Amino acid sequence: MTRPRVLLDVDGVLADFLTPALAFVEKLTGKTYQEADMTTWDIFEVVGKEWEQPFFEACNQPGFAASLAVYPDAQEGVARLREVAEVYIVTSPLNHNPTWTHEREGWLLRHFDIPSNRIVHTSAKYLCVGDALVDDRPLNIQRWNEEHPTGAGILWDATWNRADKVGVRVYNWSELVNFIRRL
What we know:
Blueprint: E1 5-8, E2 15-16, H1 18-29, H2 44-47, H3 52-59, E3 69-70, H4 74-84, E4 86-91, H5 100-112, E5 119-121, E6 132-135, H6 138-147, E7 152-156, E8 168-170, H7 173-181
Parallel strand pairs: 1-4, 1-6, 4-5, 6-7, 7-8
Antiparallel strand pairs: 2-3
């Protein structure tokens, strides 16, 4: 029996990109934001588009991708998911960060034992073929579902996507693993 192929996002699912992003925003703007303030995936819709370029200049420094914290339960969750599925990483790189891709691959190997031949770096996630895509960005799920109508676009629940009604929403690793088992 063939195990399902699950395409798994990193930032917002495995890695905490938001905490250091909000720290950069605070340095730039002097204003403090919390995760609860993020009601949309694009943080600049909340903090202001004028901060987007300075933000990316700040986080495009070497070391940023390697320094991201792993979300609690993510390592155990991925291990459980790998018992029932073939797991591939599909992640959008920060293209202006000269070390992002290399750091991301090292981070995934170090924290999840995922080798580079199981990692796809692209913002066009809808081009990747699998039985399911797990992502926290509603637009990625929508586009992937349109391209793969027999697949399962799975929205990883987050504060910033609660208003979105796209794909199948999961709230934790147990729900995800149980859903994948039924594919």
